[in-house]
Structure prediction request, 513 residues.
Amino acid sequence: MITVKGLEKRFGDNLVLNQIDAQIEMGEKIVVVGPSGSGKSTFLRCINRLDEPTAGEIWVENELITDPACDINRVRQKMGMVFQHFNLFPHLTVGGNITMAPLHLGLYKADGARKRALELLDRVGLADRIDDYPVRLSGGQKQRVAIARALAMNPKIMLFDEPTSALDPEMIGEVLDVMTELAREGMTMMVVTHEMGFARKIASRVMFIDDGVIAEAAPPAELFDHPKNPRTKAFLSKVLPH
Amino acid sequence: MNTASSTHHRPLQRLVSWLVLAAVLVIVVVFRQQLGLNAELLERLKTNFTNNFIVDQRWRWLLSGLGQTILITVFAVALGVVIGLSIALIKVLEHNGKKLFFLTRFANLYLTVIRGTPVVVQLLIIYYVIFGSVNISKVLVASLAFGINSGAYVAEIIRAGILAVDRGQMEAGRSLGLTYSVAMRRIVLPQAIKNILPALFNELITLLKETAVAGYIAVADLTRSGDMIRSRTFDAFMPLLAVALIYLLIVMMLTRLMTRVERRLRRSDHR
Prediction:
């Protein structure tokens, strides 16, 4: 579904991603882990070109999206993204947040939009908050609305950029529950996270990124319990409970 | 909560201000001898007032001058917002890494020149140099000059207001497949308005007072009208004080309006 070839990203002289190759199949749940500053968020953001790659190719469903002639806005419609800081639109209600883009892009009509928003909010357990403004919601609720907003575009893949890193500890569970449910329903997902328990539970593959390269990629049982790369071992010894 | 308590206190505040005014009046009347407010002085003031404003219906000069001032200010603000928004968008696009070639260079030149020279000089150059050989309405020239001048300051206000909106807002919009311009119009600008409006109101107030130099190209605005009365009656006190009072009243009214608008904008943060 997604093929990455020789992806490179520089910010000025700083080489953040160095020759990344990856293949993601339909229905896979890729969890990307690694030390902070390793380039894992940049990798995710290159997939929908929020960060522009400086070299390499990214193919999404047999379309070369790094081609300048590619209509990236159309491609992004099938790639939902969830941000660390939620990025809800504060001037719109919860319902408005969810329906604004689909309505503007003609995905559905005004009368169908509210019904669809209610369905999605019901999925994340917030149907009763449709007319509230985001300022009234807790962090966990905001992130669940953000997930519903991304799902409203009927994406084929969901990208999660550290979705629980900005949350108070007691709110992490409710967001991970929604994501676990999504994974169970078969959504193709790519998740950058520090939640190792979650990775172990839902990942089809875990990618360990260090210093701008994929140091190791394997199913969670293998990567967590029998890491091959010494850098993976060093990282895991720091983050896994002893 | 804030608004509720201030409405609650408003009748009390009004009562206090009336009491203060009444006290001042009583003091003036009781101590008029000590203040030198004898009948002779009062009579002289009355004559002066009549001379300056009633004879030849000179109050009408002030009125038409006020009209010119307001006309110039309104036109200049409208022009300033149009220019300011355009320049601000050019600067923001540049900031977001878009290539605009000569447009950014033009915008920077405009900002540097306009903010680097006095508005009076700009006014004189536009009137005597640019439109020197054309017969054109002076009020129009003044409106143009003040509009072009104001645009530079409005541009900075709008640019700062847009850049103050969190970068993640644009990214969230783009990640949903919206184009840059749609995300700008539907997501960023509605939020930027809250940062922009109060500062824009300030610019309006500044502009209103700045138009007082329109007399340099012989526009009979409020200031020039007051000065014309002075040169006719050889009395500086009455006409100039009247001019100052009129400016002050308008500015106070605008400030009040601004406070109200700001309060409304803040309230929408808590809905």
About this structure: The interface with chain B takes residues 48, 50, 73-77, 79-81, 83, 85, 87-91, 100-101, 104-105, 133, 135, 146, 149-150, 153 of chain A (CB under 8 Å). Chain A has a mean pLDDT of 93. Strands of chain A lie at 2-11, 14-24, 29-33, 55-60, 63-64, 79-82, 157-161, 188-192, 205-210, 213-218. The radius of gyration of chain A is 18 Å.
